[in-house]
Design goal:
heterodimer; A: 350 residues; alpha/beta; Rossmann fold; 2 domains; 9-stranded mixed β-sheet; 5-stranded parallel β-sheet; 9 helices; 17 strands; B: 257 residues; 7-stranded parallel β-sheet; 6 helices; 28% helix; globular; binds flavin-adenine dinucleotide; binds adenosine monophosphate
């Protein structure tokens, strides 16, 4: 029997979305090979979250009952999983592609001396297994051979669809909750969370905003972001930017969108003076629509944008905000010819 | 404080990736090279800690001989010395990479004394394996914390903060010696100065040649993801396009009509 173990992260008694994606992959593999999906959950609320996994194809949930593991401690959590590998002999252990999923599984791999494949999008079971995984944050795919007695994988975020209708414990098939007390070494508890700070409340967060106005090198200065702020304000959105603007100190790094910044998925992303480097695009391609404002009609952003205005953002963005205000006030259109004549388009920022 | 930073040379791809005809590599003929922004922050942090507290810093990389460029970049912003684990150009998987780094750290510590802190990027820019730092820490039996965006070095301990799942921050406190993998945002790296570049150019680089081995995953080939094929609709040129943009905003429901 080819059993698969899935490390399930949870908050407030509910499994995290990325863990559900890992369960979907595990389910598709056991459907092909026969065998069962078993979950492992650690920390407060684990049993409650475990019960809800029946609808996601889990028959057994191993729930780690040890107060010392209540606070996140990746090495100790991994030790618990390593012990469970010994006890249950799974063909694979799968985790979601979250910070913690990747971290805990890498610890399992390191301490058990096995290879691990991160950010997998597809697996075909055979001898050996073949898989496809993401490189460059998903801008490139790698096909690989993966030969191991226990296959350790994390699943690339937001690639595998989860059946939302399966969410919720109503009518869930019976699931066995198996409390489990691992051996815990003090050394494995050295790296653990000892304090927390709540998120800032108030401002519209970039990660959640429905509209994001992004600025790149074309914006030219920290001060020039004022016009982008104004547009974002009128649209109830937030301002972000490319790495060029965070490296220059025009915006804080928390505003950076891309491979080494935030991934956003707004209804509209307005990319102003951004060329569309692949490392930026991986952060915004989940937007429903992209509107590019750029002086260069051949810039790579045109290959991913749905709409574009060719022109100088220092003229175009203020003209958009003026037009929004004009319509809100019910005024007739203002002739724009003079504006174009006084500042020729294509001008580089001063 | 004795600090070692590990960096990896990667191509600086721009608007799109082009593969070699055999699909095994990125075509780098027209590209420059760099390291991950996470690793740039690790380098900057090492330099700052040594500036503030004394000690010395070293940078280590495993890669082809051309990777000297990234070592010199790190020395140009203030890293004291550099170690190159030279490969014949074949890709080392994360197991082999970690093993070579561990072996080198053991040899370095035998001659130079122990490192208090080993710094890594959270993940490499190209392969994104999310594991080399953890493998090194486990092999050396040192505590590790990953994904760090703020680091304070106290006497014999460090306090590190990273983003918590669901927002906010979580804190870790580790005794030294320790391993830390960092994310961009930890600091704002400086640019190298001209004297810094000249000094870096003259420095010796220690060289070793680790044996290639393979544990997996074994790369068979690379592919570009399928294009989403968006056809861009040009709404207009210059400020005259504003009414068309506002019409669009209303049409897609982000602005009330
Ligand atoms: C490993 C790695 C990770 C990276 N991670 C990230 C990341 O997370 N996020 C990120 O953004 N980048 C990241 N980068 C950097 C990325 O490769 C690009 O260098 C960066 O995104 C370029 O920023 P930009 O588009 O603002 O600047 P540029 O590429 O210089 O583009 C500026 C654009 O502005 C246009 N423009 C100029 N003036 C005007 C004007 N007045 N009006 C309108 N348009 C104008 C130009 O035509 C051009 O298209 C990463 C790079 C690497 C190697
Ligand atoms: N070839 C290499 N040489 C030096 N350091 C490396 C190498 N590969 C990975 N690393 C380090 O390990 C980190 C994590 O890499 P990875 O596990 O491959 O995603 C990187 O950010 C580097 O700090």
């Amino acid at each position: 029997m080819s059993r698969i173990l899935v490390f399930v992260e949870h908050t407030a008694g509910e499994a995290e979305r990325l863990s559900l994606e890992a369960l979907v992959l595990a389910g598709s593999l056991t459907a092909a090979t026969g065998g069962a999906v078993e979950a492992i959950l650690v920390g407060p609320g684990a049993a409650e979250a475990g019960i809800g996994l029946g609808v996601h194809g889990v028959r057994t949930a191993h729930v780690v009952a040890d107060d010392r593991l209540g606070s996140y401690a990746p090495a100790a959590w991994a030790a618990a999983i390593a012990e469970l590998i010994e006890a249950r002999s799974p063909v694979a252990v799968i985790a979601g592609g979250s910070d913690r999923g990747n971290e805990v599984l890498a610890h399992v791999a390191a301490r058990t001396g096995r290879p691990m494949a991160a950010n997998v999008v597809d697996v075909s079971v055979g001898d050996p297994w073949r898989l496809t995984r993401q490189r460059w944050a998903g801008s490139l795919l790698e096909d690989a051979q993966f030969d191991a007695d226990v296959h350790l994988l994390t699943v690339a975020p937001h690639v595998i669809p989860v059946d939302e209708s399966a969410v919720g414990p109503v009518g869930a098939p019976a699931i066995a909750i198996s409390p489990y007390a691992p051996t815990v070494r003090d050394r494995d508890l050295v790296g653990r969370v000892t304090g927390r700070e709540a998120p800032d409340v108030g401002a519209i967060s970039l990660a959640e905003a429905k509209v994001v106005v992004g600025g790149g090198r074309g914006v030219g200065s920290a001060e020039a972001f004022a016009t982008l702020e104004e547009l974002a304000g009128l649209l109830g959105g937030a301002v972000g930017g490319s790495r060029v603007v965070t490296s220059a100190g025009w915006r804080p790094h928390s505003d950076q969108i891309g491979q080494t910044g935030l991934r956003i998925a707004p209804d509209l992303y307005v990319a102003c003076g951004i060329s569309g480097a692949i490392q930026h695009i991986v952060g915004c391609k989940a937007a429903k629509r992209i509107l590019a404002i750029n002086t260069d009609p051949d810039s790579p952003i045109m290959g991913v944008a749905d709409y574009a205005v060719i022109g100088d953002l220092h003229q175009v963005v203020p003209a958009i905000t003026a037009e929004i205000r004009r319509r809100a006030a019910g005024r007739p259109p203002r002739p724009t010819m003079e504006v174009t004549r006084s500042t020729p388009p294509g001008r580089e920022p001063g | 404080m004795e600090i070692l930073v590990c960096v990896k040379r990667v191509p600086a791809t721009g608007g799109r990736i082009v593969l070699t005809p055999d699909g095994q590599e990125i075509d780098t003929r027209y590209l420059g090279f760099t390291v991950s922004p996470h690793e740039e922050c690790a380098v900057e942090e090492a330099v700052r800690i040594v500036e503030a507290q004394g000690g010395s810093s070293a940078v280590l990389t495993l890669g082809p001989v051309a990777t000297e460029e990234q070592l010199r970049d790190a020395m140009a912003v203030g890293i004291d010395r550099a170690i190159l684990l030279e490969t014949d150009g074949r890709e080392f998987d994360p197991v082999a990479t970690a093993a070579a780094i561990v072996e080198t750290i053991r040899a370095q510590e035998a001659t130079h004394g122990p490192f208090d802190l080993l710094l890594f990027g959270n993940e490499a820019a190209d392969t994104g394996d999310f594991q080399v730092g953890i493998r090194v820490a486990v092999a050396l039996d040192r505590p590790i914390v990953t994904g760090i965006k703020s680091l304070t070095v106290l006497d014999g301990t460090i306090v590190a903060r990273r983003e918590a799942p669901g927002g906010g921050w979580e804190t870790y406190e580790l005794p030294l010696p320790a391993v830390v993998s960092v994310k961009e945002g930890l600091n704002l790296p400086r640019y190298p100065s001209v004297p810094g570049r000249l000094r870096a150019k003259r420095k010796e680089i220690e060289r070793f040649a680790p044996a290639w081995s393979q544990a997996g995953p074994l790369k068979l080939g690379l592919r570009l993801p399928e294009e989403q094929g968006a056809q861009v609709e040009i709404l207009g040129r210059g400020p005259n396009a504003a009414p068309a943009v506002v019409d669009l905003l209303v049409r897609i429901g982000v602005l009330a009509s």
